[in-house]
Amino acid sequence: MYKVKHKRPAYYDYDLIVIGTGAGGGVAAHIAAKAGKKVAVVEMEKIGGECPNFGCVPTKALLMAAETYQTALNGERFGLRTEKVAYDYNAVKAWKDRAVLHTGTEEGAAFYAQEGIKVITGHAHFISPWSISVNGRRYVAHKFLIATGTKSVVPPIPGLVEAGYMTYRDAIELTEPPKSLFVIGGGAIGCEFTELFSSFGTKVHIADMAPRLIGLEDPEVGELVGALFKNRGVVVYTGAKITRVSKDGARKVVHFETAGTTHKVTVDEILLSSGKTPNTDLGLENADVVYDRGGIKVNDHMQTSSKHIYAAGDIVGPYRFTHTASYQSRVAAHNMFHRENQVVAKYHAVPRCVFTDPEIACVGYTEQQLKEKGFAYQAGIVPITVIGRANTSGVDSGFVKVIASKKGTLLGASIVSPRAGEMIHELTLAIQHGMKARQVAETIHAFPTWSEAVRAACNKIK
User: Fold this and answer.
1) Domains of the chain, each with CATH number or no CATH
2) Is it the case that residue 1 has pLDDT exceeding 60?
């Protein structure tokens, strides 16, 4: 491919222009501004991006309401009278809206202004490697950071568009849960919304092409979550291929195949959670930035093929989490203005959480990844019921699994347990710093806490 030679500008409007104000962009913008750089941010939607407005915050607020409702419903086992427990889903949504409001994103533009950061509203399009156009106006910068995230994939299923569907953005705005729902995709988003709506009485069907839910993690994770969903009345289809969708009046009919057998299910709503695709409609060719269907290509310093243009967050990968986006943003902010002491992005200890009940949390390598790499390893697993906290909490499902090298160095972990998202950080720290399972096992853990199961699992490693 012929590469056009672009002349470097004689003047820059800004030291840095950040495209996207989510975690991948906003963190770097603030760091650069505090370092005395002249900074502008471009945002085409809401300040703060995906997580506080449409993703993490609203979904976890709704899941908190669902968990509280289920706790109240099942209070009788603890001697509590719960005959009159009910919910008002409009009030549940109002709780979610307050949680989003409390993030401060509504005042985000004013907050940027206080730091001397210019907020430009609109869609950015590169004219050259050093200039972009937003709403017909040209802006020139010495450095750029692209953090435009992803959007939901709409799979090419015949009849899907005509029948209608929801994405997670639509689902968080519902004022009442659907009576029945078919979830296409059994990853984190699909499982969290299955958790949410089934908790409020929706008849949920969830399907995935993989042989189990949460298919990228160790088998024990998805198998247990699938079993727990089934126990509460969720219908789980794995190894499923959706062939078409049709309409039956106001309802939708999902046609699919499993193990060579055809099925159809009629539901009120369909929720898509079958993946995301990068937002790369930015004129990247004009900036000589290399990208493909998976997103923008960067090196270990978060630098693109155009050395003064960096990228971070979901548009880069390899993980699409808020915490990895903010981490990459910090790495990019440092490297773009410090030629010496360049920081390398590392991903061997990234925690991965799914907020079902019980929670799922994983970090490091899975067994499958180690097998593919030909690494010798050992694993230790304990049921959550071995610890006192499970007894006092009435919890009878869950586990902690750790994976270590033959010499005992921790390489990976999986937890399905109440508060797994908090428990995983002890193991994340250990993996980050190359600690041995023995060191965790010999550390005193408070009784009775969920984290005692971490010590017990590490004690299984030789």
Assistant:
1) 14-48+103-151+277-337 (3.50.50.60), 160-274 (3.50.50.60), 352-458 (3.30.390.30)
2) no
